[in-house]
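Escalation from tier 1.

The customer reports that the assembly of two entities below gives different structure tokens on two consecutive runs. Tier 1 could not reproduce it. I'm attaching the input and our single run for tier 2 to review.
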Amino acid sequence: MHEKIIEIAVRRGFLYPSFEIYGGLSGFYDYGPLGALLKKNIEDLWRNYFCLQEGFLEISSPTISPEEIFIASGHTGNFTDPIVKCTKCGNFFRADHLLQSYDIEAEGLNSDKIDHLIKERNIKCPDCSGSLGKVKTFNLMFKTYISPGKGKVGYLRPETAQSMFILFTRLYNFYRRKLPFGVAQIGRAYRNEISPRQGLIRLREFTQAEVEIFIDPRNNNHTKFQQYAEEKVRLLPRDRDDTIEITARESVDLGIVAHEFLSYYIVHTKNFLLACGIPEEKLRFRQHLLEEMAHYARDCWDAEIYTRQFGWIEVVGIADRTDYDLRAHEKGSGTELKAFREYVKPEIVREIKIEPLMNKLGPAFKSKAGDIAEKIRNLSPEETGDEIKIELEGDVYTISREYFCIKETKKKITGEKFNPHVIEPSFGIDRIFYSILETSYIERDGKNILRISPALAPMKVSIFPLVKKEPLPEIALDISDRIKRKSIFTYYDENDSIGRRYARSDEVGIPYSITIDFDGVESKTVTLRDRDTTEQVRIKTDKVPAFIKKLVDGDLKFRDIKEAH
RNA sequence: GCGAGCAUAGUCUAGGGGUCAGGACAGGGGCUUCCCAAGCCUCUGGCGCGGGUUCGAAUCCCGCUGCUCGCACCA
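Tier 1 run:
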């Protein structure tokens, strides 16, 4: 089944293993002509759901980033696993985990320290008691050097998300300083997997479609939640062994999903995947176990699709990343990444302050004046009498009342700054691509059919002159041109028998076929065939482009045309 | 990264130390008023890479790479 799908995908131009003529390299795939179109269509559908409908605009950032970003985000730490290999049995172990199993705190230690500890405690292989080799680090990020010579260390991004956090203030201004707002990005990300062996499911270079939605954590309600509140979703909460099917509202009310925002995107994601043609029964949302959750996440639900080959695979992660990332980058960059929350009522803050009078202090204390003033400011008003003593570099200065005053200030505070929290739906486009291929594949009379939805199908309509004799090809090419003027891909084929051509067309998932025959020359009609039923209907040639457009857009069903004729 | 198995056209496969590596399907061209992989003619295309043994290697040996499975890894 899996082999069959991959065979079709490779043979018919959806996928090619990369670098084949140089021997190939696992973890990399080329999308062929039809694959690239299908992928593009998935991305466009995603844009419709997550940009257009949600009002989240898309940005596009570099795939290479300087190392500081990943130091700040925690990726350098989390992507560099210390690994140790047994010299006898050859098994690999996470070196820090090994130490921890001996109750030795190893979190955050570098590999030299861990190596030292292993030698010092004489720790042996837990499997065969053989002696352990040197601790090595394994980094899942691809490293590179920016600029020649010594260059700055950089990494290929392991997720598209970071660039959106970094741009927070720019984007916050773009959205005119209002929360919530969202930003989207479709782009490549890179992870140097140790041994990727699951085709499109685990790639070293892959495409993510991510949205970062910045919200005020005091308001987790979603203004459009109503719209989805009564929709049912299949959930697998972390404390259960089986899925439950409940409405979005129930999931929030029962405290299963943390809040409306997450719940809303679970439903929205479900609807997107259904629009991709994934059958609802092959879809569920699984909550991450506590220990499984990333260091930044508060709650995370994965959309999973059931595949025959790999079982349940994660295709989307919907996480509440809290304010982890914005705070991390604030710290890392020294730049504030905050939003402003206005109070319902402004607060008046009264403050009593000691204010050094510089016009007196200056002439009297000359070069010491600045330091003395600083010390005065740091005193609390209660500590002061008519005079204060200041110690500075061993000398004691007595400052009398004429050099400072005590002032009461009133400040109106209209609100406060805070780090917004981030809700992140993150999609693995390649995995969705695979799922679509797998779930759309069927066999009919020993022939392969890809029942890709009309919206996603790489080619929308085949154009077949029944035989090669004029005027059939001429009419066919003319129809093809008129359809293409509506920005719809057509597939013209005049070779071989008509049955063979239908079979070829079905195998690459073209949902409709137009066949031009001699019967229709006089009456100016052609037949329209539906891939999934093989049914045909004779329609006026003039109407073809408009019908095809409606069929592709989902505004019309083949059945409707059939019934009307 | 470890262990095991595998590697022949686009795909599936036959064979095998020495004149031709054979077939099927797919693909190209041609003929056929041909509606669900029809037929006939014709053409294209292959022993994963590197080294060794040998007079001679696609075949035997070694290494590499890739694929499949198990282990490990999978923020």
